[in-house]
Amino acid sequence: MTRKLHLFAAIIATGLLSFSGVLIETAMNVTFPILIEQFHINPSAVQWVTTMYLLVIAIMVPLTNYLLKRFAIKPLFIIANLLFILGLSLDLLAPNFAILLLGRFFQGFGTGIGLPLMFHIILTFAPLAKRGLMMGIGTLTTSIAPAIGPTYGGLLTTNYSWHYIFLFLIPILVVSLLIGLYAIPYQKTNSTSSLDTLHLISLAIFFTGMLMFLNEPTKPLNISLFFVGLLAGGYSIRRAKTSPQPLLHLDVLKKRPYTIALLSFLAIQALFLGGSFIIPTFIQISLGYNAFIAGVVMVPGALISALLAPVAGRLLDRVGPQKPIIGGLTVACCGLLLLILACWQKSIWLLVLAHATYSIGTGFAYSNLMTAGMNSLAAAEYGDGSTIFNTLQQFIGAVATTIVATIMTVTQAHQSSITAGTNLGSLIGLACLFVLIFSALISCLGFFKKMQSK
């Protein structure tokens, strides 16, 4: 009983840290129109509030895979928590855009360590029969947080100031730290593995080059960075194959069940982050509501995600992955079509219904895709498999945010008004997200059908 209590408390501690980290991804999205005016920047610049943060996480997660092999869990958790609190404090007092980005850097550093810790604890200490439920509880933090982020950010921005978004998270981090000091095991490590620095640097160059290009694809410097990023990505893959101790082993990608689950999971992550940018922006600019209303619209979907994550995990434990994943992706596609119609009709009530509908679908599919992918691996592959999930989760979130922000910037610049540009940009962005989710559904249908025929 004591062991189960400690496991649950450890998941709660790392879950609170991860929840805060993922919440802050989208909580600032509703403030973008305010930040653009306050700091005199354009949409392509302001989206770096999210992109900078996700970029740091994407770089840190693979590094954390190495850190978990060399250092005990508890001190890593403490460092992650303190760095996150430092980032929150900087942004609470940020007098300019540069300091705001610096604070986001430290928040990304802390989240990049804390997020893999949660899944490491679940995969290491939770029994297989309970793994679906535990992964559901853990993934709850990464699925509900993006949805309620705009609500949280909108409420505080409208009634106080965007600075309070960071202030109100500090007590949560303190509680997380106290629970973690009690519950997280020290777990000594005996590994003598060394850090492949070249592998880490090449990954960082790849992520940065891709995001810089997507942010402003016509800029000559960013075109150059794109090709530099491609070269760095190719070198990173080569290091993974030839280095005696690579940062990541990519052999897990050869397993079809894992890869199908990973790509479908990333499609939903793109929907989370891309949708969390599009919907609040559309509500404020196209429909004329304030940041608070833009956040409130996301509440029903957020509550649905909160209720479904552990339920969906329990369902996988009982009936397997096929029904919740296929059913969830189907409902998500229907919800997205409804969302496109809501933006076309400019109906806020239809928009609420559409967001709630696709949240039902993603609630059943999201955590179960990660669980199904991880269950297809051997125990020795959990570290690399989880790291790839978490790294690409953050990177695809940054890519999705960057792409929809770029679409919005371009359409606003080429339409007769900002409102008309936002309308068109929202529809184009949502159409792109629908293609991703529909592709994930077709891939999973084909895979499960092939498995049944065998």
UniProtKB/TrEMBL annotation:
Regions that span the bilayer: 48-68, 75-99, 105-126, 133-152, 164-185, 197-214, 220-237, 258-283, 289-312, 324-342, 348-366, 395-414, 426-448
Keywords, in A-Z order: Membrane, Transmembrane, Transmembrane helix, Transport
Listed InterPro entries: MFS (IPR011701), MFS_dom (IPR020846), MFS_trans_sf (IPR036259)
Major facilitator superfamily (MFS) profile domain mapped to chain residues: 6-454
Record SUPFAM superfamilies: MFS general substrate transporter
Database matches in Pfam families: MFS_1 (PF07690)
Location of this chain's protein in the cell: Cell membrane
Broad class of the protein's primary localization: membrane
Topology within the bilayer: Multi-pass membrane protein
Lineage: superkingdom: Bacteria
PANTHER family: MAJOR FACILITATOR SUPERFAMILY MULTIDRUG TRANSPORTER MFSC
Protein name: Transport protein HsrA
Gene from which this protein is expressed: hsrA_1
